[in-house]
Structure formats: C-alpha cells, structure tokens
Amino acid sequence: MYAMVTIKDVAAKAGVSKTTASDALRGGGDVSAKTMLRVRAIAEQMGYKPNVSARSLRSGRSNTITFLTSGIQGSYFAEVATYFAEEINRRGMYMLIELTKFVRDDAKQKIPFPMSDGIIATNALHVERLLREHPTVVLENYDDECPYDTVNASSAAGSRAAIRHLAERGCTRIAVVGDNSGPGVYPGSRDLRYESARDECRKLGLRFDDDSFVRSQWSRQGGIETGHALADAGMPFDGLYCLSDGIALGVIRGLNERGVRVPDDVAVMGFDGVLEGRYYSPSLTSVRTDFSTMARVAMDLLMRRIEHPDDKAARQCMTVGYELVEGESTAR
Known about the structure:
Elements: H1 7-14, H2 18-26, H3 33-46, H4 52-59, E1 64-69, H5 75-90, E2 94-99, E3 118-122, H6 128-132, E4 136-139, E5 149-152, H7 155-168, E6 174-178, H8 189-203, E7 213-215, H9 220-232, E8 239-242, H10 245-257, E9 267-272, E10 285-289, H11 291-307, E11 317-319, E12 322-325
Parallel strand pairs: 1-2, 1-3, 3-4, 4-5, 5-11, 6-7, 6-8, 8-9, 9-10
Antiparallel strand pairs: 10-12
GO molecular function, one term: DNA-binding transcription factor activity
Protein name: LacI family DNA-binding transcriptional regulator
InterPro entries: HTH_LacI, LacI/GalR-like_sensor, Lambda_DNA-bd_dom_sf, Peripla_BP_I
C-alpha cells in the first residue's frame, strides 16, 4: 500500500514552507508566479490530492464556488463554465451553477448560497444584494464604477482586429450585427464591441452609418432571422462582424437558406471562439477569448477576497488576451 502524499511532502520537495505550498496550490497569498508554477508541477508529479474535507473543517469554509449566470444554453456559457469548473477543481474546490432567473434580489428571499465561499458572476449584476453579501468577481463588465473585481475579454482590441481582418480580405462595406443593449445595469461587452468596431471602420475610411449596425437578437435563432432579412434586402454588405459566435453561426445558416454564399458573397466572423464554430460548414472565423487565463485570473482575485475579507484593497479590473482564429467563413 502506498502512503498518501501530503502537503508537507510537496513543500519539502519544492523547498518551501507548508504555508507557501498551500498558498501556491490555492492561488492565494503572496506567492510569486515562478514559485506557484513550480509547486503545482511538483504536486502533480507526486500525485498530491488535497483533503478537501479536512481543509473545510480547519478553515470554516465550504470550498465551494458558485458560478452565477443568466443561462447555460449555447456553446459560449457551457464552454466558459467548463473552464471555470476545471480551474476550481484544480484548486481542490467544487463549483455550483445557479441561474439568476431563479434568484430574487429582495429582502424577503434568503440568500440561496450560504454554502458558497464566493461567486463568479456573468450577466448577473441585477442581483446586487446577493453579490454584495459574498466575495464576488464579475466577468465582462466595463464600467469603472462597478464595485467588484472584474475580468474581461479583449472586447475592444479583438473587435478592432476583426474589422481589420475583414478589410484585409477585401471587404469595403462592413456591418456590425448584434444588439448593444446588454442585460446588466452596467455597460457590457456588447457596447464595447460595437463601439470599437464602428470606430475602427471609420479609422480605416470605411463607410459606417446607421444602416451599418444590423440589430439582431442575441441568439442563434436571432442570427438566422437576421440572415434571412439581409438576404431578402439584397445583401447590401460584403462583410459581417457579429458580436458573438452564436449570432454569427445563425447568420450563416440564415444566409445559406436564402442562397447567399459565405464567404464568396459575404464574409462572416464572430467573437468568442467557441469550439463549435470550428466544426461548422463553413468553419467560423472568430476572435477567441483566452478562457483558460480568464478562469485562472478570476479565481486568483476571488481567493484574495475570500482569504482576506477585511482587506479593503481597491477593485481590480483585468483583461485577458485573444487570438484571431481564421476559418473558412472569411477565406478569400
């Protein structure tokens, strides 16, 4: 029988204290990135598994994080939730998923997450009371007045890159497709993506007027209907930048049903970079968010708030990187 590897064993192998090893594995404390990576690599090599039950008894915490979102339908939310589940599990913790439509934000409802140490919230800012009563990190928020630590995608830089990509593919009449009226009380990614794309078009000397913003419901079905409408209007654009992959995939379907060829008649691209787009026909060109880094950074911020509840450190706002993944939908 093999002896169980303990945190003390990992610390000894790494040449650090037990406290430093514990902080490195949890992503908390004042541990350098170099030390954190070394300790985690050694722990994985040794087959270390944290004793979650014992840790919970010692700390008075549940080691559970709630992922609070407006919905989990569609590839985007499922993919983001998966990256967070993997990151949370890697830290020896557990993740719960809750939908905001089941949460009332009034004094009559008992806070539904007494077992959670903290919350990762996306499209959930209308439940302000709930967020105030827990350590919270928000995803995709662009208001400087937001009181919570925030981790964002590269909505501005990615959108500008998308417009440049379409222009480099010969597109001269580009439309932005989506809806910039976000679901929260603070400005969100929809606003910034639209504004950045519009400004980049004008910077490149491309025509962009009121007709260049094509309103579409934020869904696959909305994209299909928009594709139909654009085709029925004679397809007045040769490039479409959709503010999400879900909209883009719907638009491609809608155009195809009306006989409009992508990318021959019009190039189409999206934002998010969900894996589903790679298996579509044509495969989707998209601005892919670095979801792995988003999950890691968000959890680092959240653990700081959980472990130091009396620390009134200023709000942190982080932006993760992106990659423009070329598919067939813009191949010219």
